[in-house]
Design brief:
The chain is of the alpha+beta class. It folds into three domains: about 250 residues, q2cbj1_9rhob like domain (Jelly Rolls); about 130 residues, no CATH class; about 160 residues, no CATH class. It has 25 helices and 13 strands. The strands form four sheets. The protein has a five-stranded antiparallel β-sheet. The chain has a four-stranded mixed β-sheet with strand order 1-10-7-12, with no helix packed on it. Strands 4-9 form a two-stranded antiparallel sheet. InterPro entries: ARM-like, ARM-type_fold, Phytyl_CoA_dOase-like. Pfam families: PhyH. It comes from Effrenium voratum. This is Phytanoyl-CoA dioxygenase.
């Protein structure tokens, strides 16, 4: 079932946005000098040779330990791909890690948000980048990706494991796969069956086990929510595979197109390795003069855009076409969002005609699975994750009122159905906002969290919407995961307001999060999401901007949460006001005067100022 990596484009390892949308990853060729790759590999090996805990102690300090990594991050092909997927102002997140292959084999999983759970975005807001300083072969234990699974997930309510890990047929959930080679492969196959459901043959080509066997210096840009795993070294004396993992965040929504354009081509950035794309070639829709002003003709062209033929440059297995057609609304939603195109119902008036057969089919799936007409077990036997997600998107993007059925699925369905309904409501666009806002006061926590996720993805920012979210934040426990989810949605609205040029609404978002911009005594997602709102709001001007800058300055100086410090420092760096004083080189632990209680933090303390890397490595060498 496993196969080695194939190039997504005709020129070999050429990045392609359509490949990323469909398969969830891009392999980007190296432009780094061989001697730089070797220097990075050599330093990684030296760190690993110190002891088994060396990479743990290294933690997020990869860049100060190996400054040559900046050559990789600044390479033109990687930056061009990042800008195409995440936008011009993308952010390098503070978390990064050096991973080594071992004799243990991992199970398929999606990374957690540093131990925390939340709804996963289908639209590319977060990405990982995997860098391999050496040529990676099968015997070294390459990274594996389950290509095409970024839009599917598993039920997680009722257990606290950080990552979303696939279970085998016995229901066992473990990060590592034990047993003989045949037994391990059997468990991996069973886990894929658990994800794909009874119709796994229909989507087998979509969920393909791809081993990332790549040349030295290659980078892999990956959707944050793609299922992946670490392979294992074939022999104990096989060379070690080193891999550096970085994370990147989108900081603003794609610019919204104010009126229907005559050209749907993606605005690819210029670079020495210009990215080839399906959207830049086969998706160009030529319009006759004046056709863009005709709403009926524009709707027709929209339908052509959503159901265009695949490019011969993209290697598409014939058996996958039917599944991709079913997922067409999901893929179209991501494409159109990246283009900044308005929602279909903003350009095509809502119809009172009967629903199309495709929409009726989606409606029937959710009626049977999610409207309280059967147990969770009945649903799982009848409908897999792909069918539920596809049905929800079909309803959400329909131009009639059948999308309202998603509200019943959200409030009355099982976890899987309610989750799919939330994605469908996000795809329903701004028209769903009036129906979603009251759900922020629903008695059930799941409904509140899913509703605010859909709002963050779909709502057009307004003072009324922000007021309801602020009220929900006030009603939630102040440092809870519910508050973190509310602030995450607010960050999406802040990014959208900035893209729309709504500076007043950006200021309102800052006002809402100001009480949460406090130094923390440990890793705290509420503080980090509050910083993310401030980052996506853009320029910090006026009296409110001044207060936010002072709060961020205090976080940068005093917080023990490394990721809040990362956000705060980057926000301050991006402002046009005079530079702040340099941080002193204190090495003692700083306890904040106020902030969230320690019990709500992860307990991971950070020494601010200088890096602890050399001290940690020295302790390892001395055996202390």
């Amino acid at each position: 079932m496993c196969k080695t990596n194939e190039a997504p484009g005709p020129d070999g390892f050429q990045p392609d946005l359509e490949h990323f949308i469909r398969r969830g990853y891009l392999v980007i060729p190296s432009t780094t000098l061989p001697e730089v790759n070797e220097a990075i590999r050599s330093k990684a090996e030296a760190i690993a040779n110190i002891g088994p805990e060396a990479t743990v102690l290294l933690g997020d300090d990869c860049l100060p330990a190996i400054p040559e990594l900046m050559n990789v991050l600044e390479a033109a092909p990687l930056q061009a791909a990042m800008k195409a997927v995440l936008g011009e102002d993308y952010l390098l997140h503070g978390h990064r890690h050096l991973h080594l292959s071992s004799l243990q084999e991992q199970m398929w999983h999606k990374d957690s948000y540093w131990g925390f759970r939340r709804m996963r975005h289908h639209r590319p807001r977060w990405c990982m980048m995997l860098y391999y300083p050496q040529e990676t072969t099968l015997e070294m234990g390459p990274t594996h990706v389950l290509a095409g699974t970024q839009y599917w997930t598993v039920d997680t309510e009722g257990w606290r494991q950080g990552e979303d890990i696939l279970a085998d047929s016995t229901g066992d959930v473990s990060m590592f796969v034990e047993g003989s080679s045949a037994e391990r492969q059997q468990k991996l196959n069973e886990a894929e069956q658990q994800l794909l459901g009874p119709s796994s043959s229909r989507v087998a080509a979509l969920a393909e086990d791809v081993s990332l066997t790549v040349p030295a210096g290659s980078c892999v840009l990956m959707h944050f929510d793609l299922f992946h795993r670490a392979g294992f070294r074939a022999k104990e004396d096989a060379p070690t595979r080193f891999m550096f993992k970085f994370q990147f965040i989108r900081t603003r929504d794609p610019a919204v197109v104010p009126s229907p354009p005559g050209d749907f081509r993606y605005p690819w950035p210029e670079s020495p390795h210009r990215l080839s794309s399906l959207l830049a070639s086969k998706m160009e829709l030529e319009a006759d003069d004046g056709s863009a002003a005709n709403p009926e003709d524009f709707c027709k062209r929209r339908r052509q855009f959503r159901h265009c033929d695949e490019s011969p440059d993209v290697h598409i297995a014939d058996e996958a076409r039917s599944a991709w057609e079913e997922l067409g609304p999901v893929l179209a939603d991501v494409r159109e969002w990246l283009q900044g195109l308005p929602h279909p119902c903003e350009t095509c008036p809502e119809s009172s005609e009967e629903a199309s057969p495709e929409v009726e089919k989606g409606l029937e799936v959710l009626r049977a699975a999610g409207a309280g007409l059967g147990s969770d077990e009945d649903m799982e036997r009848s409908h897999d994750e792909v069918q539920l997600v596809a049905a929800a998107y079909k309803l959400g993007r329909s131009v009639d009122r059948t999308w309202l059925a998603l509200l019943c699925a959200l409030t009355g369905g099982s976890e899987a159905v309610a989750r799919a309904a939330a994605y469908g409501l996000a795809a329903a666009g701004p028209r769903a906002t009036p129906a979603l806002l009251p759900l922020l006061k629903h008695a059930t926590l799941r409904v509140r969290i899913l509703a605010v996720f859909a709002l963050g993805e779909s709502a057009r920012p307004s003072h009324d919407a922000l007021a309801v979210i602020e009220e929900a934040i006030s009603a939630a426990p102040p440092w809870s995961m519910e508050t973190a989810n509310l602030l995450q949605a607010l960050s999406c609205l802040s990014a959208r307001a900035r893209a729309l040029g709504e500076t007043g609404l950006c200021q309102r978002c800052l006002e809402i999060v100001l009480p949460f911009l406090l130094p923390s005594s440990g890793h705290n997602l509420v503080c980090e999401n509050a910083c993310l709102v401030a980052l996506q709001a853009g320029e910090l001007t006026g009296e409110m901007g001044k207060m936010v800058r002072h709060a961020l300055d205090r976080i940068a100086d005093r917080s023990a949460d490394p990721y809040s410090v990362c956000f705060a420092t980057e926000i301050l760096r991006r402002q046009t006001w005079p530079e702040r004083p340099m941080l002193d080189e204190r090495s003692e632990l700083l306890e904040p005067e106020e902030g969230p209680p320690q019990s709500l933090c992860s307990g991971h303390l950070r020494v601010t100022g200088k890096s602890l890397l050399m001290e940690n490595l020295l302790q390892l060498r001395q055996g202390t």
